[in-house]
Amino acid sequence: MATRTRRIGASAGDRLIDALITAVLVVVAIATIYPFLNVLALSFNDSTDSVRGGITIFPREFTLENYKIIFSYESLITGFQISALRTIAGTALGLISSSMLAFTLARPDFQGRRFISVYLAITMYVSAGLIPTYLLIKDLNMMGTFAVYILPGIVSAFNVFVIRSFIDGLPYALQESAKIDGANDFTIYWRVILPMTTPALATIALFIAVGQWNSWFDTYLYNATSPHLTTLQYELTKVLQSTTSGSGGDYRTTNMTQALAAVSPDSVKMAITIVVTVPILLVYPFLQRYFVSGMTLGAVKG
Amino acid sequence: MKAMTGAAISGSAKAGRGRGDFWKTAFRNRYLYLMSLPFVVWVFVFSYYPLWGWLMAFQNFKPGRSIFEQEWVGFEQFQKLFADDMFYQVLRNTLAMSALGLVATFTFPIVFALLINEVRQMFFKRFVQTVSYLPHFVSWAVAASIVTKMLSTENGAVNDILMGLGIIDQPIQFMAQGHLFWGIVTLSDVWKETGWNAIIYLAAITGISGELYEAARVDGASRLRQIWHITLPGIRSTIIVLMILSIGHLISIGFEKQMLLGNNLVLDYSQVLDLYSLQYGLQMSRYSFGVAVNIFNSVVSLILLFAANGLFKRITKESIM
After folding, report:
1. φ, ψ (nearest 5 deg) of residue B72
2. Which H or E run includes B59?
3. Does A68 have pLDDT greater than 90?
4. How far is A81 from chain B (nearest CA, A)?
5. How many CB atoms lie within 10 A of CB B27?
6. B53 and A132 in contact (C-beta within 8 Å)?
7. Based on C-alpha coordinates, what's the Rg of chain A?
8. Which of A39, A114, A130 sits opposite B278 (nearest CB)?
9. Among the four A45, A122, A153, B159, which has the fewest Cβ within 10 Å?
10. Whole-prediction pTM
11. Which residues of A, range 183-222, sit inside 8 Å of B by Cβ?
12. CB of A149 within 8 A of CB of A221?
């Protein structure tokens, strides 16, 4: 596609179109990235100075004070640890479960593969919904535990199907020859298939990690009264809600939210936003080449 | 369990003939069973078992009793639901934001993919693409924080620009006006997901044969004509499949955006079905009522999915089912 040779003999009309397209895309790129830069600049700017306005993409009075303030709140440190932990544990377990399942489903000689495929696919379209799930978690005594972040979502049908279609693309002869060499199915999975599935695994790892890092609703629903299990995103939503909805709605306010709502310095809020954003943005450029192919793979199978 | 034996039998029919063959294959497959069955059980516990909870919609659920010891009330919860004035407002909001979201998440990524595809300078192309994925990776909590900041009356970028251009002379309180809420939610979504959603169209465009473009050029087709007659038809089936899929999700658009961007001032426009179920079902412990809302949600989205699929099947001879 990149080698299309339309350039040769480009007419004035073509060049005008090129210029127009470039201009539109420049505007789109700026509109996408400017808010991030603005928030970053504000987070490094003295908070009383910020109120004067006029900060664009560079801080006017540089300071680390905002970060010092937010990191002095214990809930933020806890949130950081819990968020990191659930991201790592959730990604590891999610990868193991979906790759194992995908491996068995990609085996043409496996008896259960049709049944399990349909069984999994149904879960993509039918879900019990908020309240039955809430009651299940309660009945399992998982309220107020770390496990509630990891266990319910351990198997995702979508992830299984993405990895499966990747494995389907690998030559089956590899597995057969490993078998002749005396490997059992688990060894084949671990030694032959897993190393070759890296691109798909990287994509899925990114999807799971982003999901884990970004979720806050499970904290809100199940662990709102367990301060030692709070997550970064949840802390951010609390700050957000406490200032936008005035009365604070149904969010239980903690010291940090009260303190922040009382002074409501924009710069401090922006610093929290940055702390919540940066870790995930650090990961994604490394995985970019994988997720583009992974997205396509997932979509083809639907 | 019953269904599984059924599947196993059909599996054996394919693998061999008699019963003996089935167990022989099963034994040979033992590692595959070991690797899959634990997760089958897992999915049962967390995805299938809670479906029993749907029975609550036909009961007057009281916590502390098992689901079979509850009082059965038939369709009373649904009658209450349909009699609630609030419900129609919530339904209206859900459908309005879904429809707006549907239109936006189709047109913008397609247009964006077409534009990106026309860029020949690789560096610029990569740069714009990389930037466009960025917002997809941040949570709605972060996105809401950023949107609120950009739209704020105190030094928000949008108000600053509008004032700078002389379009308005008073900052607009975007977040406090109900009639703007649907638009804000939709545009936030566009900002967050356009680049990401375009990936799939770009991949589809890559699959179009370059010869088609050459032939068109020989015939003297302009850039726009090439887009119209080759690129767009080339990604037609991708568009249709994605559209059917998202129509199925139309009514279950979730609540994150609405919950995080909304506030008490815009409640009349921000309340959606899932939030309604959360607030009137869970927080007020009216579990049965909340489940009735969930079921209504699922049924409508299934109807929409089948209707959309049938319609597209008739028009385009393509379908996902």
Report:
1. -90, 130
2. strand B59-60
3. no
4. 17
5. 9
6. yes
7. 24
8. A130
9. A122
10. 0.84
11. 184-186, 189, 210, 213-217
12. no
